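## retry 2 of 3
previous attempt timed out at serialization; input unchanged, resubmitting
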Amino acid sequence: MTMTQAYSPGLEGVIAGETTLSFVNPERNSLMYLGFDIRDLVDKACYEEVAYLLLYGNLPTPDAYQRFCQELKQERNVPAEVLNHITQLPKTMNLMDGLRTAVSILSFYDADVANNSHEANVRKATRLVAKMPTLVAACYRHTQGQAFIAPNSALDHASNALYMILGTEPDAETARLFDMTLTCYADHGFNASTFAGRVTTSTLSDMHSGIVSAIGTLKGPLHGGANEEAMHMLLDIGTPDKAEAYVRTAMANKKKLMGFGHRAYKTGDPRAMLLSEKAEALCQRTNTQHWHEIARIVTNIMVNEKGIHPNVDFPTAYIYYIMGLPIPIYTPIFALARVAGWAAHIIEQLDNNRLIRPKALYTGPQHLPYVPMSQR
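## retry succeeded, writing output
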């Protein structure tokens, strides 16, 4: 069969739409949200400010910021019916399955669920950003047989999330670093989960359906699940003296090291570079330098001998581990951060919608004769 158009496996390099939300620049190894460099946002802003930027298209004034933070705090609680549904789910569930189900159920209790106007979508997006940590914490604590912890309106977004998950208020340095990781995860161009959300809502489906699609996509280990696998790898290595042998054995067996490589960045993920610096300081502060040393050895071998750089999931994995966060909750945390970006992309999609419906290159047989069943 003659191919009339170029085919790109995995749609690599294919431009599937326009966005003003985030710019992934492989040539400069940079990432910007609405024109603002990720390093500036991580070092100078907080997650609430970044979420506002994504949803409203500009940085908030002091008054707008205070109103937005207050709205997030007011919207943290989820209906009791949703929490009751979570308690009926198997305690052995994958947390991403629980989160996907909880968001779907949450849609029944949102008065704007069927309203796809810009204003309604911003309202739904704000509620989803506010409630996602509550859902993540509720799902996790259910699997542990622990009582649900209600949101604490005295805490900021990052601190409250850690409080609801772990049951104790974090110190200021831990909360600030956790906030930085949320900012790094907030958006990233037309990644797989974001694209899934846009495809779903391009049919004029609703925002909650788009977020459910995104969560299901993020679950996969080649996307959101990579941070969990990266930490399992670090635990398998255990100590710095075993790191080199582990990597060389993996390389000899052609085993993929999770947390390394990125479709968009060939010479370094700027988020990984930024968080690696923060992780080193965390390891020094908590006397857990062995994790940074293992990471340094693994990174040096992969970069110098394979030309493969760490992505954002690699430093995030041991940052979360040192914070005491359980590994199964890493990907749900990714989701509670990325929900701001998902929602912003869904708003952008619906504001200027066109059904996303690509072509397929047919490679199967043609014009086969039909054989009656009695002759087969």
